[in-house]
Write a structure and sequence with these properties.
single chain; 108 residues; 0% strand; mainly alpha
């Protein structure tokens, strides 16, 4: 069995703003998303969501293209994330921030 994987360079994730603008999307992080994130993780911040968004657009979409997170339910996202986080070699914090962003965006 032949398996191919994307070998996109891992970005350095250091957003300095709560709203990360990307060329791939006009989906800004809305302030009300923080309430949703805090329901999942009481210590969530806008910076955590911004980091998750940066990872999504600079890592995930390089191989998979942009996918509307709202098309996947939380169970489907968890399956995707469980499979892809190790392949993307994300740190535990990066994985947590990505998970927060995708699940919050999915609920928006």
């Amino acid at each position: 069995m032949l398996m191919l994987a994307c070998k996109a360079a891992k970005p350095v994730v250091t957003p300095n703003t709560a709203v990360v603008a990307t060329n791939n999307s006009n989906h800004d992080i809305k302030p009300e998303w923080l309430d949703i994130a805090k329901d999942m993780d009481g210590s969530a911040t806008m910076e955590h969501l911004a980091t998750g968004k940066t990872i999504y657009y600079e890592t995930c979409t390089k191989c998979h293209g942009w996918k509307d997170a709202r098309k996947y339910d939380p169970v489907a996202w968890e399956r995707v994330l469980q499979a892809m986080i190790p392949r993307a070699k994300l740190t535990p914090d990066e994985a947590h921030h990505l998970r927060l962003y995708t699940l919050v965006f999915q609920k928006s």
